[in-house]
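4.2 Preliminary Data

To establish feasibility before requesting continued support, the project team ran the inverse folding procedure on a target of 217 residues. The structure was first converted into the token representation described in Section 3, and no sequence information of any kind was made available to the design step. The complete token record follows.
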């Protein structure tokens, strides 16, 4: 769940974003707002997604400087997979986060740790901060909703994430949110016609379901 404290969408709108699209998860958060989770539509969401992932602040996503066409092709490929999925999280009708889920056994991370039944991988990117700057509790609130969706909604037992080892800010945030640090590993390069991922030195981190829902729910 690598993330950056953020609040703005990079776009202006006077009505709720994607109001007519069905959410896979919706959750009110006291003192924060209502968060809706929508599957990414590569075409309809291209403006938002391209603005976020191509920016320098999203360097660890590996798409800095990508053109709109490159971003579209990346997310169309992702949309074609059964094992990897992309979502937007909307806060009170405004895009606030982009995240990806993946089945660890179908990902290069499986070469670096022993995958357990019920594991699910996540990468998280929050929108860039608006004129008012970062807001306290923003990342924690969105992360809690996303954790609720993947652990309860998808009935998983543990979240795994693999931030770049250089991204100490994200790693520290994960630990504050209840993740347990695993080993530092080297994710192997992936060089396929449809996707290229360079080798990455990563800090594995895990969030057990019981850490989020200690009542066993």
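Position-by-position output of the design step:
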């Amino acid at each position: 769940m690598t993330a950056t404290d953020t609040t703005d969408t990079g776009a202006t709108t006077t009505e709720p974003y994607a109001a007519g699209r069905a959410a896979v998860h919706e959750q009110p958060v006291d003192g924060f707002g209502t968060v809706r989770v929508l599957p990414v539509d590569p075409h309809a969401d291209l403006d938002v997604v391209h603005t976020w992932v191509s920016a320098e602040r999203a360097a660890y996503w590996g798409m800095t400087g990508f053109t709109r066409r490159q971003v579209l092709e990346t997310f169309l490929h992702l949309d074609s997979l059964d094992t990897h999925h992309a979502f937007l999280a909307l806060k009170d009708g405004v895009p606030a986060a982009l995240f990806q889920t993946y089945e660890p056994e179908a990902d290069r991370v499986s070469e670096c740790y022993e995958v357990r039944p019920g594991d699910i991988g996540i990468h998280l990117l929050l929108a860039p901060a608006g004129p008012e700057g970062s807001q306290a509790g923003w990342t924690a609130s969105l992360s809690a909703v996303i954790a609720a969706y993947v652990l309860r909604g998808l009935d998983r037992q543990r979240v795994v994430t693999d931030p770049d080892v250089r991204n100490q800010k994200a790693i520290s945030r994960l630990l504050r949110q209840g993740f347990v640090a695993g080993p530092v590993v080297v994710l192997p390069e992936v060089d396929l016609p449809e996707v290229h991922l360079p080798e990455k030195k990563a800090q594995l981190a895990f969030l057990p379901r019981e850490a989020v829902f200690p009542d066993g729910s």
